[in-house]
Q: What sequence folds into this?
DNA sequence: ACCCTAGGTATTGTTGAACAATCCCGCAAG
DNA sequence: CTTGCGGGATTGTTCAACAATACCTAGGGT
């Protein structure tokens, strides 16, 4: 008898837990840049905002920690990590190893499986024409996730998802989205064409050069960002 | 109430949370094989055994989920995952990508940095002479963790740790530890010698053959284990 | 004036109990 | 034999409180 009400327009069980929904909301805020690096996420205040209990919120924190979007510091709270240059080098090193290997060992490609990649490329090109660089970045991430997904390995997909999520953290530090994302659009299209032609070795080589270049551009942007004035991070922590 | 007791055992705060300690204990039970795959971990019973609250226990579950040692099923509980053949192939695929890349890109090796590897090899050889195949397996894991550690990448180390922990789950399914672990001893020594000679390319190639062979042996063992009669798993729980 | 130490306060870590939602199992009906 | 329906057990979530720790501020020594 207590049941019932669920059938109507009420909040459906959603096949996901409250912790996951809270994590979704936090993930959005982090990737959108609303929560800036090094900011402490207060349990007390987030409980009010997300309308979940402290325990559930902490479980959401764990979820996001798993994705690399938050870090725990015992007795001090959770923080959005700030990536430094070493982190970027580290991330790209792992990324090259994973992505290049995934492409290098590809077999039995057909046009059907390339379809999601082509959709991402088209999205990136359209967004670039609109000047929506954030969406270009998002399409680029989706492209690489689909690219790695061709390997058909669950664990490789997981590592990649974590990698890209963490990498996205670096984008908010940087204020030159166009120079950063624009070159990727053409590179992604070139990659798809190489794969469509069955040239996996060529695609792997192109991808490696692509990633090395992307890393260099990001590093340079990060250094410029930090060098100029330095302590310009006057952030009211409300 | 029952509290207090904490003063006697550990004077120092331990620098770790109760959830981590509970996770440590669970991890031990899983890797030692006390908790068998597909067994559900009841919250109620583990609360009594580990002397933590349900919330803390659930946080420990999350921690181990991150390591791949447990899986969550919504509204059904947590389970020790049972690796099937696809999982093994998946794990080894990622493992080859990571380890071979780590070795292939090694630079500036000197004898000092090889020291931990030599210690693991010696441990493996000594344990093999004693017939302690479980310890041979442990030394082998330590060897590979140190091997990958030479790359000096935090995230690669993390992925590797998770990988090896998950791989260990497969060992308990298998009842022929000697045939499985014995060949690794000599292979590990050969790898160290190649690295000491500065032949990283040779080492990378040897490692790839090594891992392919290791995967094949594990797969065969798993198939034999499952094919024969099947329901021989008369395991007294607790 | 500076450094170091001590105490107060805010925040996190952990607990236990309670309730709601969901799943699993056995059983009756077709 | 399959199908639909309770009843009981387990997980999911909330709440309120206490303990432990870190941060901040004030006071004393040099």
A:
């Amino acid at each position: 008898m207590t049941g019932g009400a669920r059938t109507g327009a009420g909040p459906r069980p959603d096949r996901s837990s409250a912790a996951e929904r809270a994590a979704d909301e936090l993930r959005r805020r982090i990737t959108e840049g609303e929560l800036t690096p090094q900011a402490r996420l207060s349990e007390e205040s987030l409980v009010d905002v997300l309308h979940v209990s402290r325990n559930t919120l902490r479980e959401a924190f764990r979820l996001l920690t798993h994705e690399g979007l938050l870090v725990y510091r015992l007795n001090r709270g959770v923080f959005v990590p700030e990536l430094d240059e070493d982190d970027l080098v580290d991330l790209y090193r792992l990324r090259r190893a994973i992505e290049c290997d995934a492409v290098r060992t590809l077999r039995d490609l057909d046009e059907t499986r390339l379809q999601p990649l082509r959709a991402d490329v088209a999205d990136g090109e359209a967004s670039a024409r609109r000047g929506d660089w954030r969406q270009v970045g998002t399409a680029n991430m989706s492209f690489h996730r689909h690219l790695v997904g061709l390997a058909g390995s669950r664990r490789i997909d997981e590592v990649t998802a974590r990698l890209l999520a963490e990498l996205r953290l670096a984008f908010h530090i940087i204020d030159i989205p166009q120079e950063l994302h624009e070159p990727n659009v053409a590179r992604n299209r070139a990659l798809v064409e190489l794969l469509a032609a069955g040239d996996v070795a060529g695609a792997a080589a192109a991808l490696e050069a692509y990633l090395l270049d992307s890393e260099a551009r990001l590093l340079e942007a990060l250094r410029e960002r930090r060098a100029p004035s330095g302590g310009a991070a006057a952030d009211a922590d409300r």
The domain at 85-226 of chain B is CATH 1.20.120.530 (Four Helix Bundle (Hemerythrin (Met), subunit A)). The radius of gyration of chain B is 20 Å. Residues 3, 13, 40, 42-44, 54, 58, 74-77 of chain B lie near DNA strand D (CB under 10 Å from a C1').
